[in-house]
Amino acid sequence: VQLQASGGGLVQPGGSLRLSCAASGTVVYSFRAVEWYRQAPGKQREFVAQITTSGFLTYADPVKGRFTISRDNAKNEVALQMNSLKPEDTAVYYCHALRASFDWWGQGTQVTVSS
Length: 115
What we know:
There is one protein chain. By secondary structure, this protein is mainly beta. It is 0% helix and 55% strand. It has no helices and eleven strands. The protein has strands at residues 2-6, 9-11, 17-24, 33-39, 46-52, 57-59, 67-72, 77-82, 91-99, 102-105, 109-113. Strands 2, 4, 5, 6, 9, 10 and 11 form a seven-stranded mixed sheet that branches.
């Protein structure tokens, strides 16, 4: 099982980005949950959003109303649509998948919000 995160980049405040976490070696809907985390320089990795097998969504307070997590079974990926981006959203974003007692991390994708 491998997770490939992509879609990061440089965006101005107020802009949008769409991150993608593509799964290989398995199907994304087999995970009991897929999550996005982020880690800013000098800070601990923090939870951003989660989608469960049943489609239940959870968001961290700082991103509620601005970020949307979704799953596309046809593309075998989980996406994170990020709108109204702020400089404090700057971080490396990681996807994380869980199944039974196992979990997997994708490599990070850098998101920089700056004018």
